[in-house]
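User: I've been trying to design a sequence by hand for this structure and keep getting stuck. Would you show me what you'd pick, starting by listing the structure so we're on the same page?

Assistant: Good idea, let's start from the same input. This is the structure you sent:
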C-alpha cells in the first residue's frame, strides 16, 4: 500500500527517504507524505512541482557525496520556488543506511499495527521504532527521547538537550471494508482501492472467482456463510454487498442492519431493488432510520455509466468521503490507542517538546 516502503523492500541500491515534516499554511501534500529517491529515480511523491524537483536534487547530492547525516530543509513555496500554494514546507531527508533499512523492514511487517518512528535530525544518524505502548521494537533507543507526542501527526520536536527529532506516526489504516461479491464489479472495486489507506475483507463462496494476485490490503474469505464475516467486521466498518443472488443480498442486508455499530453500507442495485428491500426490511422490524442509511444505488450522484471500472471509481470516491470524514472526527478527539491499558514507558530524560 505504501510505495515508498515496498520499494525499499527489494531494492539494494542506496536511497534517501524524504518526508514532509511540517507544513505552514498551504502545501502540496500533508505532513507524513513521503518519497524515496535513488540515483536512478524516485518512488512516490511529496507533491510534485518545483518543491519535489529541489528535494530530488538534494537527495541525489547526498547520495553522490555519501552524506549520510539526516537534515531538515525549509522551503518557502511562493518566494523561493514560485509555487501557487504559498505556504512553507519543511522536508526531512534521511539516508537509508543498513540500520534504517532494517527498521523500515520491521515497519513494513507491522503495517497493520500502529508504530511511531523517531529520527534524529541533528548529529549522528539515529532512528528508532516504537509500538503503541511506547516500547522500542527496532533501531537504537539509547539516544531517542523517552516520551513523544503520539496524538499529533508527523512533526518535528526538540528534546531537553536541544536536539531536533522527526516524530513520524506510522498508523495502521482505520478504514475497513467488508466486500461481499467477487464478480466483475467487486473485482474492479478491489483494484480501485488497492493503493488506498484501507483494509478489505473480500468474501465470496466461489473460490475460483478470486484472482491469484491480490493487493497487500486485501484478505479473501471463500465461504458458504458470508454472514459470519459480517459479524466479525470491526465496529464502524464499511460494507458493500454485490453478490450474484438477490436472496443472499437480502440475508446479508438483514445481518448488517442487525449490527448497531455498523458503519457505511452500500448495496448494489437499482431504485426498484431498493424499494423491494425497504419493504422486506420494514416487515422484519428494521427501524426506518437504519433503512434510510442504506446506500442503494451505490456510487456518486450524476455518474450513470454502469461499466465495472466506472462504478468502482465512483464507489471509491464515495468511500473516501466517508472515511475522511470519520478520520477528521477521530482527530478532533483525544487519540485512544488499542493498547492504552499498557503503561507507557517511564521517562528517564527530559520529555520531547514540539517545535
Amino acid at each position: 500500500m505504501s510505495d515508498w516502503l515496498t520499494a525499499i523492500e527489494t531494492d539494494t541500491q542506496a536511497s534517501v527517504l524524504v518526508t514532509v515534516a511540517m507544513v505552514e499554511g498551504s502545501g502540496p501534500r500533508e505532513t507524513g507524505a513521503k518519497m524515496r529517491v535513488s540515483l536512478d529515480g524516485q518512488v512516490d511523491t511529496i507533491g510534485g512541482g518545483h518543491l519535489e524537483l529541489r528535494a530530488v536534487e538534494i537527495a541525489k547530492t547526498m547520495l553522490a557525496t555519501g552524506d549520510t547525516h539526516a537534515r531538515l530543509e525549509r522551503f518557502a513555496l511562493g518566494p523561493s520556488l514560485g509555487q501557487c500554494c504559498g505556504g512553507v514546507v519543511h522536508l526531512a531527508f534521511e539516508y537509508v543506511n543498513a540500520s534504517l533499512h532494517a527498521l523500515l523492514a520491521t515497519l513494513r511487517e507491522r503495517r497493520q499495527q500502529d508504530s511511531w518512528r523517531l529520527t534524529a535530525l541533528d548529529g549522528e544518524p539515529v532512528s528508532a521504532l516504537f509500538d503503541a505502548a511506547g516500547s522500542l521494537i527496532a533501531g537504537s533507543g539509547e539516544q531517542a527521547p523517552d516520551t513523544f507526542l503520539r496524538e499529533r501527526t508527523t512533526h518535528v520536536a526538540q528534546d531537553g538537550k536541544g536536539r531536533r527529532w522527526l516524530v513520524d506516526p506510522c498508523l495502521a489504516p482505520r478504514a475497513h471494508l467488508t466486500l461481499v461479491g467477487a464478480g466483475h464489479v467487486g473485482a474492479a472495486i478491489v483494484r480501485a482501492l488497492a493503493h488506498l489507506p484501507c483494509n478489505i475483507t473480500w468474501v465470496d463462496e466461489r473460490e475460483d472467482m478470486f484472482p491469484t494476485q491480490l493487493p497487500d490490503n486485501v484478505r479473501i474469505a471463500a465461504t458458504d456463510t458470508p454472514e459470519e464475516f459480517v459479524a466479525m467486521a470491526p465496529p464502524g466498518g464499511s460494507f458493500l454487498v454485490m453478490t450474484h443472488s438477490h436472496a443472499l443480498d437480502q440475508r446479508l442486508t438483514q445481518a448488517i442492519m442487525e449490527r448497531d455499530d455498523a458503519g457505511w453500507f452500500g448495496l448494489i442495485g437499482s431504485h426498484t431493488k431498493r424499494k423491494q428491500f425497504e419493504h422486506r426490511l420494514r416487515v422484519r422490524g428494521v427501524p426506518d432510520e437504519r433503512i434510510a442509511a442504506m446506500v442503494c444505488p451505490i456510487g456518486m450522484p450524476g455518474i450513470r455509466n454502469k461499466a465495472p471500472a466506472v462504478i468502482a471509481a465512483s464507489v471509491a470516491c464515495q468511500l473516501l468521503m466517508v472515511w475522511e470524514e470519520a478520520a477528521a472526527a477521530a482527530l478532533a478527539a483525544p487519540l485512544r490507542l488499542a493498547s492504552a491499558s499498557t503503561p507507557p514507558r517511564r521517562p528517564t530524560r527530559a520529555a520531547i517538546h514540539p517545535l
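That's my pick for every position. To get oriented when you compare it with your attempt: The chain has a mean pLDDT of 87. DSSP finds nine helices and 16 strands in the chain.
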